[in-house]
Write a structure and sequence with these properties.
two-stranded antiparallel ribbon; mainly beta
Length: 148
């Protein structure tokens, strides 16, 4: 979704609300290590407060994972919130600002890149997952194996 920001940058107090979904097919092209079970629901608000334009967005979705320890498949729902300061141009290399050249912002791209940075690199089915036996491959969550 492309958000037009000219009016938002020009008028103090201007607000734009948005709510939409990104399909799993579009998201999986972004090189996620897990599959999206549900569409990515994105909602939020962009507003100009005292000449500073900020965007807040909320992302809700469910991913299908394979546990890194026991190799079981499972699904987990996630909910994240992000906020950014928007600028029309920047002469500094400040990573906290999102530069919106042409007075537009691609919310899809912003949400997906935020998610890539937020998701954990090691995925476990549960915090106390015991994993697999190194000798026989038995799932230690289901009980002890007979290896010595």
């Amino acid at each position: 979704m492309i958000l037009q920001l000219k009016q938002l940058f020009d008028i103090v107090g201007e607000v734009k609300d948005f709510s939409f979904e990104i399909s799993p097919e579009e998201i999986n092209e972004a090189q996620f290590s897990a599959d999206f079970v549900t569409p990515l629901s994105v909602s939020g608000r962009a507003e100009n407060r005292a000449g500073v334009v900020a965007v807040r967005l909320s992302c809700v979705f469910t991913l299908s994972h394979v546990c890194d320890r026991c190799l079981k498949e499972f699904e987990r729902e996630y909910s994240f919130e992000f906020s950014h300061i928007l600028v029309q141009s920047s002469n500094t290399r400040n990573d906290e600002y999102v530069v919106c050249s042409g007075n537009t912002l691609d919310i899809n791209e912003l949400a997906i890149s935020d998610l890539l940075l937020q998701l954990p690199t090691k995925i476990l089915c549960r915090e106390d997952c015991k994993g697999l036996c190194y000798v026989c491959g038995h799932d230690l969550n289901e009980g002890e194996c007979n290896c010595s």
